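The material for today's practical consists of a large collection of protein records. A record pairs a protein's sequence with a compact description of its fold. Instead of coordinates, the fold is spelled out as a row of discrete tokens. We will come back to this pairing of sequence and fold again and again. Here is such a record, shown just as it appears in the course material.
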Amino acid sequence: MKTLSHTWFAEGYIDFELKKYTLLAYLQEIHKEFTQIKLYPQLSDIIFHHNNILHFKHNKEMLQDQFPKKFTHVNMDKLQLLYEKIVEDDEMMKELEDIIQYALNRMSATIKDGAGIYEFVEEKLNIVPVGIIPLENNEGYFFLCNGSYHQTNVYHYRLSIFEKHDEKYRSIKTSFIAQWKRTIVNTYENLKTELIRGKTDLPNPAVYSIETDLNFPLEETLLPVAKRTLVKYITASAA
């Protein structure tokens, strides 16, 4: 996939038509993936770039606190220098403002398209507990079925809590365990029993099944949406 640098909008020759071409080529690649119902990493990447230029537009004094944490000290210094250089040139600043506004509008529309696909996929997921769920459900397993239900992907998950801007959020880490074939004998309950036998340090795990009648790309769409939806489900159940 074609990618953009963190400071693509202000690098090199600042020309509206040139930057517009660069942006449209990038968005074309994003839309190509979206038409195949492939959301990640495209959706998170464009959200990052949208927030990036939005913060740059607002105020250079806010850069250090507001930029995403993936920015390094070197990146921050580069953005500061770019801003200070451009702000001294009225004509260049006007050109940059036009580029930023155009990019924000086009990116917002693309993000909206991606969000629509995300919501569609999420609506097609059905989460059901397998057996009795223990009070401590921050660690366990989930079974993921895509379309036919004949194959079940099994994942271990662990939830953790982190704070950002005085608010608490839950994140999820997962690891693939195996793929099992569903049969009349090989039910979810039997799969759960096998998992408990194989991992004695987790004798009473929380286990969920996540199913959909449709076929979605596993790594690019189904798995990341299922993970986020499971976090929401567990959080809502605990409230």
